[in-house]
Specification:
disordered C terminus, single chain, 623 residues, OB fold (Dihydrolipoamide Acetyltransferase, E2P), N Utilization Substance Protein A, Chain:P, domain 4, alpha+beta, 21% strand, 44% helix, GMP Synthetase, Chain A, domain 3, 23 helices, 5 domains
Length: 623
């Protein structure tokens, strides 16, 4: 093959297989090494290399051989010294050298032997590239052609000669696909299989609708509009809650588009699936009201009990079927979208329930005098409705007001009861010593063995847990299998007999320090910042430092800066006068007073005393 012919064919393989050049060259060279070993019968312990020239296609094989001086016993493992020195001049007999060992008839034999290895390596490289590429595409939309349709699903040919599988449960119900149709789907999972990557596709997943909206609505793609939640029943209906991240943006209008062109493109792709775009709201009442659309809502009343969140939605008589939807579809999608359990009632049904609550609960009726006065009128309207007589809009308004008053008051009563229960629990917890929660249950020695075993199996580990339940919810303990009134009495007596050690209070260690004299600062100084006060005090300290002559010995410890801040110049003068007046002070041998100076030492940060001596007419300072 000519030089250019081989280069063209080689590059064509790279382009067709979409492989890296070094990967294919490495595969060919490895195959040539295997072909050489098989052709000459070389040992696997012998080091062999092959080099491919991508321009000419010529393969050169190099084998490691021992250098011998006289004669060759085995050409596969030995080479003469003269031949070896043509490759490396300083080689010596006994050395190992890598020399060219390409057989003369290696061309066609090597090609036939290496063909299978090369194909295998190329297939492995293709699979590796496919795996890496589609793992990055997970969660994204891909496009392909329908190749086969069978009972289990649809096989779709993708880029890089990969195949994706769309199971029947991931197809849009009612959608008919034909061979060679181009379809779009989202990659939901990529697994490594024995025959290449297994790519699972879906058109029924809610992320498929999310990606379609990102493609059709630029505001979503750029983050101006955010998709908050998606609830979808493929092929039938979907609800999407959106919100704007910037003020002045209409998120619903951006998704619908001018004359609905954007949403219609998505509906067409989803086999005419109806899509409701609603605006997300932080208030659950407003959010649920919009989620029930297209039905108009009269009122939404929320209740949270033991982790279950239930929303009672009241709608008019003419809106009931629209709110529920075909086979409950609208209510079901609204519940998925909001995360609340939704109970839809008509206005007359809600009025009957509210009337029953008022009649059955005198305390509630006493708290709602206005609603109590409306009860006869409500009964009359409900009777008229039951007889099939027409009800006026004004009467429906009365029913709505009555339901709203009762439901809101019921919510307030529940909230108040919850608050009282929380306070009771908090009070019970406060009465139990903290050390009780660190004491193991076996320290309650009065508890009988079979009672102790029952409590341990029920999950009680500490005395504090048992005391808390006995005070807050004794029925929980009584409800355990094997626990009766005698066992409860035994537990109460054992807990009452327990004594808890008082917690050791760590008293702070008092540091004895000399209490400095408090000197009132002027108002102007008190208003100064801390840094300015420190600087001002340092200046005053330098001004105060002056020579003070004392009789007797002088302390070498000096005066601290804090003490000096609280001294006044009068204190130094008074001290000097008292020293002069006192006749009991010690004097030096010559009867003269020693000179003492107070100076501020910058390095030590305090005022120190220094002695002054006159020598030769000059003052010399000593520490």
């Amino acid at each position: 093959m000519a030089k250019n012919d081989f280069a063209l064919a080689f590059n064509e393989v790279l382009e067709e297989k979409q492989l890296a050049k070094d990967v294919v060259i490495s595969a060919i060279e490895s195959a040539m090494v295997s072909a050489y070993r098989r052709a000459v019968g070389a040992s696997t312990a012998q080091h062999v290399e092959a080099k491919l020239n991508p321009e000419t296609g010529i393969v050169t094989v190099y084998a490691e051989k021992e250098v011998v001086e006289d004669s060759i016993v085995d050409e596969r493992t030995e080479v003469l010294l003269d031949e070896a020195r043509k490759v490396q001049e300083d080689v010596q007999p006994g050395d190992m050298l890598l020399v060219e060992s390409t057989p003369s008839d290696f061309g066609r034999v090597a090609a036939q032997t290496a063909r299978q290895v090369i194909q295998q390596r190329i297939r492995e490289a293709e699979r590796s590239n496919q795996m890496e590429y589609y793992q990055r595409q997970e969660g994204e939309i891909v496009s392909g052609l329908v190749q086969t349709i069978n009972a289990t699903g649809v096989t779709i040919g993708l880029e890089m000669k990969a195949e994706g599988v769309m199971p029947n449960n991931q197809r849009i119900p009612g959608e008919k696909l034909k061979l060679h149709d181009r379809v779009r789907a989202v990659v939901i999972e990529v697994k490594d299989g024995t025959r290449g990557p297994q790519i699972i596709l879906s058109r029924a997943h809610r992320n498929f609708l999310r990606r379609l909206m990102e493609n059709e609505v630029p505001e979503i793609y750029h983050g101006i509009v955010e998709i908050r939640a998606i609830a979808r029943e493929p092929g039938a209906r979907a609800k999407v809650a959106v919100s704007a991240t910037q003020p002045g943006i209409d998120p619903v209008g951006a998704c619908v588009g001018m004359k609905g062109v954007r949403i219609q493109a998505i509906v067409k792709e989803l086999h005419d699936e109806k899509i409701d775009i609603i605006q997300w709201d932080q208030d659950p009442v407003v959010y649920i009201s919009k989620a029930i659309s297209p039905a108009r809502v009269s009122g939404v009343y929320l209740a949270e009990e033991e982790g279950a969140r239930t929303a009672t939605v009241v709608v008019g008589e003419d809106q009931l079927s629209l709110a529920i939807g075909r086979d409950g579809q609208n209510a079901r999608l609204a519940a998925k979208l909001t995360g609340w359990r939704i109970d839809i009632k008509s206005l007359t049904e809600a009025s009957g329930d509210a009337l029953g609550k008022m009649q059955g609960d005198p305390e509630l009726a006493a708290m709602l005098p206005a609603a109590r006065d409306q009860m006869p009128q409500v009964e009359e309207i409900l009777a008229k409705k039951a007889e099939g007589r027409p009800v006026t809009p004004e009467e429906y308004t009365v029913l709505g007001q009555f339901v709203d008053r009762v439901e809101r008051r019921m919510i307030q009563v529940k909230e108040e009861a919850t608050r009282v229960e929380e306070e009771r629990v908090a009070a019970a917890s406060a009465d139990i010593p903290a050390v009780a929660f660190t004491m193991t249950l076996d320290q309650a020695t009065g508890v009988k063995e079979h009672v102790f075993n029952i409590l341990t199996e029920a999950g009680y580990e500490t005395v504090g847990q048992l005391m808390f339940d006995m005070r807050v919810n004794p029925n929980k303990v009584l409800g355990l299998a094997g626990i009766g009134s005698k066992a409860i009495q035994n537990i109460e007596e054992s807990l009452a007999a327990l004594t808890f050690p008082e917690p050791v209070k760590e008293e702070p260690v008092a540091v004895e320090t000399a209490a400095p004299e408090v000197v009132a600062e002027p108002e102007s100084a008190a208003e100064m910042p801390v840094a300015e006060k420190a600087a001002e005090k340092k200046k005053e300290a330098k001004k105060v430092v002056e020579e003070v002559e004392e009789d007797g010995e002088v302390s070498k410890d000096g005066v601290s800066l804090d003490e000096l801040f609280q001294m006044k110049p009068e204190m130094f003068q008074a001290a000097g006068e008292e020293d002069d007046a006192s006749g009991d002070k010690k004097k030096d041998k010559k009867g003269k007073k020693k000179g003492v100076a107070l100076e501020f030492d910058e390095s030590l940060g305090e005022v120190v005393t220094r002695k002054k001596h006159k020598r030769g007419g000059e003052d010399e300072v000593e520490w």
